[in-house]
């Protein structure tokens, strides 16, 4: 089960991750990276790991849109 604390920490990890990383990594690598960073902050059981994996995959467009909004004006993902 994904707890509220895990969700907050996940989005904190996303916000603290370099914008270029969020935009340039492929889907599989980005999901792995975010899970790895989250696991470094707290212990995650197998069920939560699977749920978080699915959650992150479902939110990749939002994660990338959020990252693009953090780019300086006039800069785009090239």
What's the short version?
This protein is an all-alpha fold and 78 residues long. The chain is built from four helices and no strands.
Q: What does this molecule look like?
A:
- The chain has 78 residues and is mostly helical.
- The chain has one domain (4-69).
- It is built from 4 helices and no strands.
- It has helices at 4-16, 19-24, 27-41, 46-69.
- α1 crosses α3 and α3 (27-41) crosses α4.
- The longest helix has 24 residues, at 46-69.
- It is elongated, with a radius of gyration of 13 Å.
- The termini are far apart.
- 12% of the residues are buried.
How many distinct helices? 4
Mean pLDDT level:
92
**Order of helical and strand elements:** HHHH
Helical amount: over 70%
Report the β-strand fraction as a percent range.
Answer: under 5%
| Low-confidence runs of at least 5 consecutive residues | none
**Cα-atom radius of gyration:** 13 Å
How many strand elements? 0
Q: What global shape is seen? A: elongated
Number of domains: 1
Main sheet, how many strands, which sense, barrel?
none
Q: Quaternary status of these chains?
A: single chain
**Distance N terminus to C terminus?**
37 Å
Topology:
Layout: H1 4-16, H2 19-24, H3 27-41, H4 46-69
Fill in the keyword field for this structure.
4 helices; mainly alpha; 74% helix; 78 residues; single chain
């Amino acid at each position: 089960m994904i707890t509220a604390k895990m969700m907050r920490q996940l989005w904190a990890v996303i916000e603290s991750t370099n914008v270029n990383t969020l935009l340039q990594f492929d889907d599989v690598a980005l999901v792995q990276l975010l899970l790895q960073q989250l696991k470094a902050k707290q212990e995650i059981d197998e069920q939560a790991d699977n749920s978080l994996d699915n959650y992150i995959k479902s939110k990749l467009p939002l994660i990338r849109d959020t990252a693009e909004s953090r780019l300086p004006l006039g800069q785009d993902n090239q």
